[in-house]
Amino acid sequence: WSRMDFRWLVLLFCLVSPVEPFYLPGVSPRTFKDGESVNIKVQTLFSSESQLQFDYYQLPFCKPKKIVDLPENLGEAVAGEKAHNSLFKAKMKVNEYCKTVCRKDYTPAQMEEFQDFSILDYRVNMRLDNLPVAEIAKFYYEDRPEETLETYNLGFPVGSKLHEEVHTDEAVTEHYVLNNHLRFKILYHSISKEKGFNQMAQGSKTLDGQDNLIVGFHVHPYSIAHTYQGEWKESCAPNCPLTSCLGDGMFAEHSPQKIEPSKGGAVIWTYDIVWEESEIMWASRWDVYLRMTDDRIHWFSIINSFVILLFLAGIVGMIFSRVLRNDLSRYNDELEGTDATALREESGWKLLHGDIFRAPPNSTLLSVYVATGVQLLIMAFITLVLAALGFLSPSHRGSLLTAVIVLFMLTGVGAGYVAARLSKLLQEEDKVRVTYLTATVFPLVCALAFLLLNTLIWAQGSSGAVPFGTLIAIILLWFCLSLPLVFLGAYLGYRAEALTVPCRTNPIPREIPQQLWYLRSLISILVGGLLPFGAVFVEMFFILSSIWQHRFYYLFGFLFLVFLVLIASSAMICMILCYLHLCAEDYRWWWRSMFTGGSIGLYLLAYGAYHYFARTHKAIDVLSSIIYFGYLGLVSYAFAVMMAAVGFLSCFFFIVKIYSSVKID
Fold first, then answer.
1. Pick from 585, 579, 570, 541: which is nearest to 649 by CA?
2. Full-prediction pTM beyond 0.85?
3. CA atoms of 222 and 508, how far apart (whole Å)
4. Is 139 exposed, middle or buried (0-12, 13-18, 19+ CB in 10 A)?
5. 28-65: per-residue pLDDT in tens?
6. Using an 8 Å Cβ cutoff, are 582 and 349 in contact?
């Protein structure tokens, strides 16, 4: 080593200092001392049979004297995940059985409401210390009975079907029961057993052996028609004497709490609190929600995607290394020689140099959508990187949706820059109009569709409707952040040097010969989206299944790889199809490249429709279908715009590259 290398090494060691691990804000562990109160919060009612979700207190459950709405971030507000306080009380490591919440008398209409929610399989969502409540089930492999698979169902059902009675006239009567008793099992362990826990996570608080961490929140619902002696006193709650409870979690012989919409009735709501020590570490407490049932399917999906990518890369490589090189060599030799007749008889992409960069119709709209697609592409890339690194974990509620909204606003500067550079190339004169349309066209389309869907949801009384205040906040965020950034990016883009192309445009357009059937625009556009979608449809199945079954999707590492493969495969198939059209002397590549790349949005919409009807087991009402397809259409539209930009940019740089190698006289 030289003396200079040694000095740099010493300086590096001097700059390196010991570091301490730390917890991100909002996700640091919270500890509880023995006997300390823990708050069980109630949230929403959701169902896999309907797209409408409702607030917990929209059903006539027992309510506290004052309902307090707990703080929520932007993502939670948009998703309608509002949390409230409840009458369920628990104290750290204190087991309690048959605690009474309240006794309520219900009218026939209220009982019918409970039955309707039970028929549609609505489930109740609660949370404790940021953990969602879940029903845990264990499954055994047939070929490996010694191994068990523990899965979960988020929340617990409002009610369930009891049995069916068949009458003499073959009419069937279905009876439903109400889950009015909940047994909460809360898993914990002492802070002293936590490996690597740092006191910095608690700030200035001093930790001791009495501190505990909550690492699990499970529930088991029961239907019990509670009985009692004497006259009921409302003041006895939560320690009302019930003859149906024997203590320590045991029950006397009892009947289920039937839902009788014809006559109503009284219901006593009760719960148990059972604490169980667990070896689960705090950092692993979300594993039961995020565990993959079989990761081999995802690896097969990745391998399938890479095979498609290699196939397309081989075709593109052959075009560049053999076909293009031979064409360019022959064309340039003929141009330098004296045989002009051979040159005039030459056909194919080489003769389009005078028309290849001719401005397309509606060039302003083209610039706007390319810029918006780049904005969405940057937003998606940053979001997936943050999610793959764990910053947007489902444990950070609403963080993913918040990141999408904020990043879209911030990446407006990129959209303005691309729109300015492209419109400058296409010689657009009205710079302000291009910039303004870039900032407003895509958000306006999404806003109108979203407001229509939100109005329908609000009319049904669903908690999924975004509050008016949140809508105003998003509009102000767009107006104060996104709009200025788009104009800033456009200012920088117009100040930059204009993009240069290797060919001048002839004043008279060249006549385009009749195209073969497989080179017609519609066919090539549909083919252009098929192969890229084939590389990602497996992951799309898991995403849609997670949304439909209300499960957490956390395979962002796989999704990020698939996203990269999707971009590469779409770019390659667009270049291949563009080359085939150029060989057929069709120079109308501008909009065709956009539609070819964006056609994957059509396949996404079609697959979402198939998944909707294939996974539906009951008749779905019209409103749920409108909401599902409305949001699916918005996602497909955004996806199509993003991939349209990929198709356009790949074809643009491909054409600039090949025509830069042509010697033009």
1. 570
2. no
3. 81
4. exposed
5. 678 888 888 998 999 889 888 888 888 999 999 999 98
6. yes
